[in-house]
Specification:
The complex is a heterodimer. In chain A, 77% of the residues lie in helices and 0% in strands. By secondary structure, chain A is an all-alpha fold. In chain A, α1 packs across α3. The longest helix of chain A is centred in the C-terminal third of the chain and has 33 residues. Chain A starts with a helix and ends with a helix. Chain B is an all-alpha fold. Helices cover 81% and strands 0% of the residues of chain B. Chain B is built from 13 helices and no strands. Chain B is globular. Chain B starts with a helix and ends with a helix. The chains are: A mainly alpha, B mainly alpha. At the A-B interface, α1, α2, α3, α4 and α5 of A face α2, α3, α4, α5 and α6 of B.
Chain lengths: 132, 230
């Protein structure tokens, strides 16, 4: 019964996200609206973390599995992809690594700059890493 | 073979979970990065479908119920974000700047390399939304007149790649801060990367999940600007 309730709450927010997607004119998918909606409800206490925790964390853990069917879908797009395959492979590899390095380095540089200047965001990562 | 399986609704689900579990088992046994469960899962499914001449649509008839949970799973990324809200509040300038840098880098890379490979405008805009979540990326590609199927394929490959490379790239390039790692992973490889970020730590996972949303929204505007450049 517990899991049933948790899943129901999660699907309710997913549905809410879909409704917002249908109603609002922005190019934001339902999943992102749902995420923001659920976050706000958690933040303002309308939904307790305990009432979704196990099912939510299980679903999040299963995310890679949910990409398997789409990945195997390459079989279908193989025909269109083949003529530009190696170029696409190079672009994908280079840009994925470049984006990871650029955004990570930029974030890290600003965090340490702020830590040096103000001191109030001092040591945040090393402390928080343990809570994981 | 295809004839029998076409009657079955659960074949796709069993194959998906089985292939992924095999990858998970290989990873635990040999501890090599190449045995990434997601990568192994995809390869095993593809090889088996080809070997037994089963149509992808026959497989996906059942497998789509697994993909179906991607939307609620993305919604659930609100939970780690809520639990790590303090890290977000404290570092919001660095976080927003980092995600913006990531989105611009993605556009610039695709622009530079597309020009190098003499891509057509249509091929170029197809790749522009490659780093963001499929739901937003498909929309951008469609609007800019790209090949949506290729966009989806490239987004998936990017996610798989991010999932495999995340830990190593962070190590090689000395990205040590947990917040910065999360932003790096989420900005470059959406939900598939975020799953790896969550394995690395809850701060990483929360920040990565946040990046999916913010980076996706920023890219909607950026892609329209970048589309005019080439």
């Amino acid at each position: 019964m517990n899991y049933l309730k948790q899943l129901m709450i999660i699907l309710l927010f997913t549905f809410g996200g879909e409704v917002l997607h249908a109603l609002l004119p922005f190019p934001v998918p339902g999943s992102i609206y749902g995420l923001l909606l659920l976050f706000l409800c958690l933040e303002f206490g309308a939904v307790k973390a305990e009432s979704i925790r196990e099912t939510a964390m299980w679903l999040v853990e299963m995310i890679p599995v949910m990409f398997v069917p789409a990945g195997a879908g390459l079989l279908k797009s193989w025909g269109v992809l083949r003529p530009i395959l190696w170029q696409v492979a190079v672009i994908t590899l280079v840009s994925t690594v470049a984006v990871m390095v650029a955004s990570g380095k930029a974030t890290q540089a600003i965090i340490s700059l702020q830590a040096k200047r103000g001191g109030h965001s001092h040591g945040n990562s090393s402390h928080r890493e343990k809570g994981a | 073979m295809d004839e029998i399986l076409r009657q079955s609704l659960f074949f796709g689900g069993v194959l998906t979970l089985g292939a992924y579990s095999l990858g998970y088992w290989m990873k635990r046994k040999w501890k090599l990065a190449i045995f990434n469960p997601l990568l192994v899962g995809i390869v095993v499914v593809v090889v088996l479908l080809l070997a037994f001449r089963v149509d992808y649509d026959t497989y996906n008839e059942g497998a789509k119920y697994i993909s179906y949970f991607l939307t609620p799973a993305t919604v659930c990324l609100a939970l780690p974000l809520y639990q790590q809200f303090e890290a977000l509040r404290r570092n919001y300038i660095a976080i927003l700047a980092g995600i913006l840098v990531g989105a611009v880098t993605s556009g610039a890379c695709v622009l530079g390399l597309s020009a190098l490979f003499h891509f057509s405008h249509r091929e170029y805009v197809t790749l522009l939304p490659k780093s963001i979540t499929t739901a937003i990326g498909m929309g951008i590609s469609e609007e800019l007149g790209g090949f949506v199927t290729i966009t989806v394929a490239v987004i998936v490959i990017t996610g798989v790649l991010g999932n495999i490379l995340a830990e190593h790239v962070c190590k090689w390039f000395h990205i040590r801060d947990a917040v910065a790692r999360g932003i790096a992973i989420g900005s470059s490889s959406h939900a598939a990367g975020t799953a790896k970020a969550l394995e690395m730590g809850e701060v990483e996972g929360a920040m990565s999940g946040l990046s999916i949303a913010v980076s996706g929204i920023i890219t909607v505007f950026l892609a329209n600007i970048f589309a005019k450049f080439y």
